[in-house]
Amino acid sequence: MMTIRAMTALFFFTISQMLRDAKFWVMGIVLLLPSVLALVIEHFAPPRHSLEPAWDLYHGLLQYMFLMGLVPLTCMLYGTGLIGAETESRTIGYLITRRLRRSTVILTRFVATALVLTLLCDVAATAIHISIMSGVNWQALAAHLGQFAAWSPMHDLTVYWCVIALGVLGFLAIFSLIGLLTAKPLALSVIYMVVFELIIGNVPAGARVYTLMHQLRVTAVGAIPGLKVLFALPPELTARLFSANGSGITQVLIISAVALTLACVLITVRELTPSKVARD
Amino acid sequence: MAVIELTQLSKWYGEVIGLNNVTAEIEHGITGLLGPNGAGKSTLMGLATGQLRPSKGGIRVFGESPWDNPSVISRIGYCPEGDPFWQKLTGFQFVVFLARMSGLQGASARRAAIDAIERTGMSANAGRAIRGYSKGMRQRIKIAQALVHSPELLILDEPFTGADPIARHELTNLFRELAAQGVHILVSSHVLHEVEAMTREMLMIDHGRIVAQGDVQAVRKSLLDRPHVIRVRVDQSRKLASQLVGWELVSGVSIPQPDTVLFETKSPEAAYERLNSTILSDGMNVQEIAAADESLEAVFGYLTHRESK
Lengths: 280, 309
Hints:
- The complex is a heterodimer.
- By secondary structure, chain A is mostly helical.
- Chain A has helices at about 1-20, 20-45, 50-80, 80-90, 90-95, 100-135, 140, 155-180, 185-200, 210-225, 235-240, 250-270.
- Chain A is globular.
- Chain A starts with a helix and ends in an 11-residue tail after the last helix.
- By secondary structure, chain B is of the alpha/beta class.
- Chain B has two domains: about 5-220, 3-Layer(aba) Sandwich (Rossmann fold); about 225-290, Alpha-Beta Plaits, CATH 3.30.70.100.
- Helix content of chain B is about 40%, strand content about 30%.
- Chain B contains eleven helices and 13 strands.
- The relative contact order of chain B is 0.14.
- Classes of the chains: A mainly alpha, B alpha/beta.
- The interface between A and B is medium-sized, with 31 and 38 residues.
């Protein structure tokens, strides 16, 4: 019972810590940039006779700018500091000399952070949705819907909410682990992001199945009809990469669980001392 | 059973030795952990609170290893050295949060925090953000968080640093009071006099090794012939220096900086006592009273030298 009380205290403390920090509000503004961009594009776009430009902009922004860029970036900034920030400020001593095991400390902070970041990213995704949809005149386009007649932006937004939650879970787990591996986690995180997620995750090689980027894309493609067109790949490659009704949920959950388990092991065996410390 | 048992305990950081093959038992009551800067005091405290792992040998607190062991560390109240704070919190929020982290529930956590804050004399400032606290206030609020869950063992790393003479006196009384209630206390300092005001039991370490252990009077006897240099940072340095010159127990006085007086004495205890009353009666504004490091290093050098003989 006392452990649960301590976990609850840490959970809410982590959330309040995030909300008090200027970094959170800066990230909030950065995450709203795609929706501002969408508004600008919609404002200056010539009158449209098809839904296609809106569909392209919607999924282009959410896939390329948001899921492949801003969500991992946000998770990188928070995941690497999940324990590292407390270690550097030496406040970690207060957290690990109380009622909780070290692994419980990191898991509780992880859950609180993941929850806040998911909400933040989902709100930003909703802002993109509203920005684009506010510029679409459905009545005027009713006669020209063509292949987009069945497009349900609200359904797609719901899918993106879930994919974003999955992305936050996976990326936050990976970056939390990196945060415990090295004293300079941001450098290693950028290398991981560029080499593994952005390069390997985008080449048609077998290793891409181990990347979060690929699995998130597979999940989105499996749940949003016609989305595979967005990636403009040759048909045989598209068929190989995105099987019908495929989903990467299980793979993302496995990757997250492995990363979190390793993080729990590391925090249990490693001393948490700041990178520059006076030894007395 | 000893409260803390160290068995051939060593801790090193790369090539730097923090503790070197230390075997000792820390018994009930108050124990002073004395040593100059870099002696290994914080390392020993880090090991006792489960923040550091022994490189070799073992440490047991209440008969168990403290590393990642909440059943042991939840019985400890730890006051760290330095300034580790969530600066935006108020003192009250800080202590309440750590009370909750110790398993106390809403109202009882608040009650315990109010009580701990009151005991450390911080009630008037508890509603202010920690970032605006003076050094002395920070020390007091750190002690309050260490007390909040009524621990059986208090581990206090340099709790008097930055505290003015009145605060030192109050905190000393608080620690004595807690010890009388059955709380075991391990308190570190690099000032012999501070620890001596609380306890006769002492563990003196230098360069990661125990150089003396046991009754302070026995250790002190061997130090009688050594002069102690005391540094006072005060606004009326000349006035204080002119008074010190007239004291029999003072063998030398200097003003190395406009706000600093250094004086030498072979009776530091009596000198501290007289100094406090002089400062209070003359209304001087004191920023710091401390044993000058050089002198203390010399004391430990002396002990180390004696040990090696």
